[in-house]
Structures are given as C-alpha cells and as structure tokens.
Amino acid sequence: MLEVMDVTKTFKERTAVSRVNMYIEKGEIVGLLGPNGAGKSTTISMISSLIAPTEGEIYAGGFSVKKNRTTIRRMIGVVPQEIALFQDLTALENLRFFGRAYKLKGSELKERVAHVLDVVGLTERAGEFVKTYSGGMKRRLNIAVALLHEPELLIMDEPTVGIDPQSRSYILETVRELNRTKNMTIIYTSHYMEEVEYLCDRIYIMDHGEIIAAGTKHELKAMLMEEDSIVVTLNQSADQLAEALKARDDITRVHVSGHEAVIAAKKDAPVLETVIQLTRKNGVELKSVEVRSPSLEDVFLHLTGRTLRQ
Amino acid sequence: MLGMMLVKEVKQLLRERSELLTLLLMPVILITILGSALQGMTSPGAAGAGQLEAAVVIEEPLDVSLAQFQDLLEAEGMPPEMQETLLEEAAAVSVPEMFTEMLQSLEEDGVLEVSIIDDAADVPDDAAGVWEFDEGYRVDTWQQMFLQDEVPEPVIVRVDSQLGIIEGITGAFFEELNWQKEAAYLAMQEETPVPEAVQTEVETRQLDNRSVITSFDYYTAGMAVMFVLYTATFLASTAHTERRTYVFQRLLTSNVPLWLYVAGKGGAGVLLALVQLTVIFSFSSLVFGVSFQSLGLTAVIALGLALTVGSLAMLLTAVNYRLRNEQATALFASAGVTILAFLGGSFFNVSQLSETMAFIGRMLPNGAAMQSLLAVMGGAGAELIYPMFVSVFAFCILCIVAAMLVFPRKEDV
Fold this sequence. Notes:
The complex is a heterodimer.
Chain A: E1 2-11, E2 14-24, E3 29-33, H1 40-47, E4 55-60, E5 63-64, H2 69-75, E6 76-79, H3 91-101, H4 106-119, H5 135-147, E7 153-157, H6 165-182, E8 185-190, H7 193-199, E9 202-207, E10 210-216, H8 217-222, E11 227-234, H9 239-246, E12 251-257, E13 260-266, H10 271-281, E14 286-292, H11 296-304
Parallel strand pairs in A: 3-8, 3-9, 6-7, 7-8
Antiparallel strand pairs in A: 1-2, 1-4, 4-5, 9-10, 11-13, 11-14, 12-13
Helix pairs in contact in A: 3-4, 4-5, 5-6
Chain B: H1 2-14, H2 17-37, E1 52-58, H3 62-75, H4 80-92, H5 95-108, E2 112-117, E3 129-133, H6 137-146, E4 156-159, H7 163-188, E5 203-206, H8 215-227, H9 229-244, H10 247-253, H11 258-288, H12 295-323, H13 327-344, H14 355-363, H15 365-377, H16 386-406
Parallel strand pairs in B: 1-2, 1-3, 4-5
Antiparallel strand pairs in B: 3-4
Helix pairs in contact in B: 1-11, 2-8, 2-11, 3-4, 3-6, 8-11, 8-13, 8-15, 9-11, 9-12, 9-13, 11-12, 12-15, 12-16, 13-15, 14-15, 15-16
C-alpha cells in the first residue's frame, strides 16, 4: 500500500528527516512513535503530498506521490494534528464544504456526511458551531472530514492531543472499527506509547529525523528481553541513588525523573536488594517499588536514553 | 467550488461581529459625524485650498448704471442738486466695485487670482468660482439703499468643488457691507428705520449646471471607498488563519488547486465589497438623502471598486502565505488604508493642495473611484468616470500579477 524509500527532507540547513524507509501493507495499522520534533509530522506531510522530499521516493498504491499528486490525494485521508476546521461554521457546514471539495454532490454528499457524523458520534450536535465544541468533539469532527471520501489510506497525525480520556478512548475505538470494518490502512502518529501499543500492528520509532527501530510491538520489546525494568519512588530526589546504581555492573541504565527512577538491570540480577541497601545507606525513604515487563517507553529509553515526553 | 468558497466567506463574515462592525457600522457612523459636523461646507476640501482662479462678471459698466439711476431720480422728481449728491454716493457704494476691490486685495494676499469680465461667456474654463452681477443689479441695490425700494435679486455665485471658500468670501463681504450700512444709519441718529440688508443670501449654482456636493455626499463617497479596503484585509486575515490552522493544507489534500483558492479570495472580495457598498449607499440615501443621480453609473463604479478589493485581497493573501505571517496585512490595515484614504481624498479634498497630490489621488483606485462617485452624485455623465477605469484596471492587473508571483509556487506552505 505504501513504500517510503530513503526519504530525506531538508529545510535550508536543517535536516528534518533523514533517509527514512517504511513500508505498509493494505489493512495494517502502523504506528509512528517519537517525541516532539522527531520528524513524524514532516514524514506525514511528505506521504500526504503536501511537501516534496528533498531526496528519495514515496509510492502509495503503486503511484509515485511526487508524480501523481492528484491520484494520491483521492486515495488518502489526512487527519492533521491541528483542528483544521472553520470555527465559525457548524459541523454540518464544514462537512458539506469539504465534501464538495472532494467532489461529492447531491444525495451522495448527504449520505456521506450523515455516515461520518454517525461514525464519530456527532449526529445530534451537527448543527452547532465548531467553536462551541469541546476539544474532544473538535478532534472527532477533524477525523470525520478526513473520512468523507472513503480513503484507502488514513493518515492520523497525533489525533488525540489535548483531549479528555473519554474522547481519546472514543477516537481509538473509532480507528479500530474503521480498520476492522473497512479494512482501512492507517498510519497513526503519536507520542503516547500506550495508544500506539493498543492500536498498531507494527511500529516505527523515530528520533532526530531518523527511524531508530521498527517492528511489531513484540519484536521491539524483545530488544529488552534480557533486562528487568524496576521503577522506584523515593521521598526525595532520586539523583544520588541513580549515581550509586550506575556504578554497578548488573545495572545497564538508570533514568531519573524527580523522585522516580526507572532502572534497567540484567535479567535476574539482585537489583531489589541493592536498591534497598543503597536507600538505607543514603538515608532515603523508599515509597514504592514496581517490577514490570518492558514497555515501548522502555524501548525508546533504551534506544535514545530519553523518555518520549522529554 | 468557487461558489462554495464564496458562500463560506459570506457566512464567516456574517458571524464575525467585530468585522461587521468595522466594515458596515464604522463607515455609517463616520458619515453621520463628519457629514453633520461639516454640513455648512458644501466642499469639505475648501480649507487650505491655496490660490484659486476666480472671475467676476459685471455685465453693465458703472457709467451706464449711473445714467439709468439718474433717469430714475429725475422721474421721481428729485432736485438736480440732490440728484448729484445721491449719484456721488451711489458711485461710492456700488456693490460690484466694492466687491471687486475686496477680491483684488485677496489677490494681493495670494489667495485668489481674479479676472474681471463683462460677459459670462468669457469666464475661463478653470475658474473655481464665478460671481455674476447682472444688468440692473447696481440700480436695484441703489434703489433699495436710497429709495427704500425692494431688495434686489441676489448675486449669482457659480462654483465648482471649491464652494466652501467662495461661499465664505461672499458671505463675509455682504455681512460687512450690511453692518457698515447699519452703523452709518445709527450714527446719523435718524428715526428712519434701518433698511433691509442688501444681500443676505447667495444663490449658488454648480459650474456646468451640476448639483452642489453636500458634506453627506462627500463623506458617503469618502468613507465607502476607504472602508471597502478593510474587506480585503479581512479576507487576507482569514486566509492566514486557514494556513495556520491547517485548513489550507486540508483543502490541498482534497485536490483544491492553489489558483482556485486564491481566486476564491478574490471573488469573495468582489462579492463582499459589493454588498458593503450597497449597504453604505442605501443607508446614506435613505437617512441623509444622498442622491446618486444615475444608479447605473454608481453600480459600474461600485463594481470597479469591488474588483480593486478582490485583487487586493488576492495580493494580501499571497503575501501572508509568502511571509508565513499576517504582519503585512496588519500593517496595511493600520497604516496602508489610512494613507490610501488620505491620498484618495476620503478625509478632505487633498487634490487642492497641489497638482502632484491631485495626480496621485487620481491614480489611486480609491481616489479615482471617489472622484467618479462625486461626479455622478453631481449629475455628471459616463465620460467623467472613464478615467477611473484606467487606474482601477491597472491596479487590479498589478495586484493579480504580483499575487501570482508572490504566492508560494510549491505547496510547502
């Protein structure tokens, strides 16, 4: 369905995306995970034909994005990170406007508008101005517009930024449903790893404009199978403890965030005992300890030394 | 698609109360304030007019008038000595001569350039004001002064747009004359009542028989051509918001061509400007009785002005997209419109300041449209509005070509 081949995008002297390679099969949900500024939106914009790559080629449905812009645009639906809607128009007016832009007319337009309103659960509120909507409702309408022309490939750029858990859950379920019922191919970018983990069959992890890892979530987590992940919470800053832990051979990484430390240690190493000893020695009170299986967050930490939200 | 974009722009504007206030209410308020405040001046541009060309037509020589007056006195049975005294006094208080004397002193001060002629047909074409003293005027005024006869017919003052200063000169002269006459009677302490004033009113007619432009006419034209420019800034501003909020990119991904988007802004500019002008003109016509004389010509001027707004909206949109901000539009809305309005004569008639200013005003589409509107309001025919189309056409072409050059060709916006 989609092939991204050695794509690079340079803005003046800054390289936003460097030698990115991706492939997506028909009907897959593929996640693009990375912190802010990793190059996800630039990659999405190139796939959407909005910006041209400096180098490399992108093919969608067998067509070169560079050479068949019109065809590609009929094939894809884009849900931008921003609320790309007319705030002074009602939801219905927005949908009719963009529907006509997609060359829908008459009864077909009417049916498609009614359908997408139903999909995103806004039928009852369709006559209200967008500016009166909650953040979650705006996000849902933002998705509805991209679904009007029944795209084969849906590109969603951080569609759940800044909304309440209920709306987020609704959007995630909508995405799953679209994939299940319509066999829609979906590219989903986010810096919320739990969303990507929940939705996606395969994941590409980006950082500093490059793909640093790719695979199914199990394949990615397998990178950390030789490690245990322990999260400890102290009554004060964990910096001193982290320094002491880093000196030990069986501890591979320590990441500190305030009173919390995430410790990656070699499988079956006696880390708990060490942590308890060191906290006592440093006069620090241990508030909680959690031993957990590796998450995508841990994978990202392992690969970059940083968390996704840093 | 274009129609759909026009409908969208109209809906958006109708729901933007602050913009509606600027585009419709503000011009109406300013027409009311300025029109009322300067109601006495039929030409708000008169002040600071500089040196004006003027002419005085005295159809009858003084000695002919004196001879006629002598005949009258004889017919009244007046003794010859008294006749001689009255004739001497009459020669001393001849209104046309006194008036001419005053104008000549103004000429020495550099305010006017006066020609004194005896036939109305010889009035120079470029005369901004003409005072006509008909045959018999002197005799009528002497009869009224010395024989308590009826007040003579008023002096005919013909003016063009400089009426403010011409009317001021006329009024000042007759006020002074009447005051002196009243003072003279009081000084004589005679019991006879003070005679009626020589002249209290001036009959004004527009040169070439056009109607006089009132302050409401002037500011209806001035404010309309000024505030219509804000429609272009409104559209450019919405275009910037559409880029910032990704709506524009969404339109691109739905295969709306770049040119159609920009043309949509232009088309919306034309449509909204026409609606705006219709509202302003209708208000002025209904409330202040502003008459446009020819609705057809007014519509043609409004269309020319609307095309200007449309092309300007396209250019400002293109600049916003090129610069990726709306600073240029904000600058145009704050300073650009004011400068254009000033040069175009929306506040006062700057064409009287100098030939250069007059030329600049004529070259600007808003100035040219304003001149055309005033001409049509004054009853002029189509020939007076043709020059406007040169400047409007040139401006539109310039804006559209510049918009095409400035708008980012690649879709990396």
